[in-house]
Amino acid sequence: MADDAYEPNPIELATDLTIAWLANPSTRTSAGDVPAFLGKMYETVSSLVGGNQEAAAPAVEAKEYTPAVTARKSLGNPDVIISMIDGKPYKTLRRHLSTNGMTPAQYRERYGLKADYPMVAATYSEARRAMAKKIGLGRKPGQTYAAKADGKPSAASRKRKTGNVAAE
Question: Which portions of the sequence form the region Disordered (predicted)?
Answer without folding.
Answer: 141-168
